[in-house]
Amino acid sequence: MATGVVAPVALVTGVSREVGIGFAVAERLAADGFRVACAGWRAYDHRMTWGADAAPPTMPGQFFEIDFEDAAATASLLFDVGEQFGLISALVMCHAESVDSDIHTTTVESFDRHMAVNARATWQLIKGFSSQFVGASGSGPGSSSGRILSITSDHTAHNLPYGASKGAMDRIVLAAAVELAEQGITANVVNPGATDTGWMSPEIEAQVLAGNLQPRLGQPADVANLVSFLCSPEGQWVNAQLLYSNGGIR
Is CATH 3.40.50.720 what the domain over 9-244 is classified as, yes or no? Predict the structure, then answer.
């Protein structure tokens, strides 16, 4: 990058484990020339079956610990990042609450937490991003306009609050593509299908492999490759889309 050119800034959420999608995305954007701010909630990993990393990973950018159920903390995140990095060019939301339960076993508390983390926080982050966005400085990747991206899923049955809240998230992001168009911001949703981030049992792996046109599992790097393109100037013409990048699930 030329001397004196200020690198664009990307905020990537859901960055807490080295095998996670958020971590892969943050690493890739850093390699692309972005200054990366990472946000995650390691306490979430500790209470999930896959567990947290034995030691906090070395982040590809500065790490902000945040529970997205906390509306006040979520609202202040963009300000905190801006104070240290400057204006944000790309917002990539990989965070999620995902605790399996069906129609009968879902509790009100769990449903509300899923909606807060997956839907409400998405709206808050987009609102904050739009409020601070005035066009990225410099001429590096992503500087031609703003980028909003989120990671979604089709999984709803037996994972009801997760699927329902992801559906709400999708609509929020796609609405942003329309409402923020005059600011030069694009907004897209990426559905990567089942991705190998350490949560799949051997039985689930076999099921995923049997149902895909390509004989392998999706990797976090696959998601990062698409995010990298969408955050680049070459990805500017892709907008208001829910993109399936899943190897060809049947």
Answer: yes
